[in-house]
Amino acid sequence: MAKRKGAGGGTIVLRRIEEGGHGHHGGAWKVAYADFVTAMMAFFLLMWLLNATTEEQRRGLADYFNPTHALSNGVSGTGQPFGGSTPHAAGRMASETGAIRVERGPRPILADLEEEDDSPTPAEPFARREGPRGEEETPPPRMAAPGGAELGRVLPGPEGESDAARLTDAALRAELARREEAALQEAAAALRDTLRDDPSLSAAAGQFLVEVTPEGLRIQLLEADGQPMFSTGNAAPSERARAAIRAVAQAALRLPNPVSVSGHTDSAPFRGGGRSNWDLAAERANAARRLLTEAGLPETRLAHVSGHADREPLLRDQPGAAANRRVAITLLRQAEAPR
């Protein structure tokens, strides 16, 4: 502070405030900066490790920091990093506990082929041999084929079936086809006898066509001039059609084969409000289906019901013939037709 006298004799006091340096702000910023640098270094180290390690090494690292649950039955990588076993390794690990193992076993024998006679036969002697686990193995089952030939089952090996197994399967299929053919022929003969002996059907015996085809046993109900199976232009069955379909249903119940029903018309155009031969054929097939089920045929036996209009005429050279108006009921084959 300085004092001096002014012009009027008064004393003037001048005060000068000298400011010192700024105070100390502390070192918190240094800690934050150090944390940032450390984090960046750790980040770049992580990136380098990801690029320098293999997938298997990374999986081991992950398993080490994420061990298996303590209550599980296996081991984890805890305490054994890098070189230790992990749940992903082969062997008895926790991640594989309860896994399903599929093993190929012997092929089953078709149960449809049975011995022709019920008399007991002595067991065939065979040489016992030990399996891979020490137990005794039984020989493959054998069956009698037509002509006395023996069908021996040969188990498939890891590289595929042997020629003997393929030949055996072919023989079994041939035997099934032969037996089904005999059953269809027998059912056809019995149905012809029924249609011939039934007084309500014998007069119209020429309107039934029963034949065994490669598709199966086919029974066709044909119309004739003056003797319709259905009312003209609609699907109302006549009494003759009802009696015939009941007979067909009884024949079908003796066999396990699935049943197909199809309706057919002639080439005459259908006259009536927007309907066509397609509608008429489908409606008559469906009417035949209802009569079959009413006669006791289970719904589960029906494979399909269809209408074909005039696309499959019975008499191709006479598309307008009455015989083309028909309903076909077919017991479909379950085995390949014999050649």
TrEMBL record:
Basic and acidic residues compositional bias, start-end: 126-136
Major location category of this protein: membrane
Residue span of region Disordered: 75-163
Alphabetical list of SUPFAM superfamilies matching this protein: OmpA-like
Localization of this protein: Cell membrane
Membrane topology: Single-pass membrane protein
Protein origin, superkingdom: Bacteria
Start and end residues of each OmpA-like domain: 217-335
Membrane spanning stretches: 31-50
Stored InterPro entries: Bact_OuterMem_StrucFunc, MotB-like_N_dom, OmpA-like, OmpA-like_sf
Key words, A-Z: Cell membrane, Membrane, Transmembrane, Transmembrane helix
Family: Belongs to the MotB family.
PANTHER family per record: LIPOPROTEIN YIAD-RELATED, STATOR ELEMENT OF FLAGELLAR MOTOR COMPLEX
UniProt protein name: OmpA family protein
Source organism of this protein record: Sabulicella glaciei
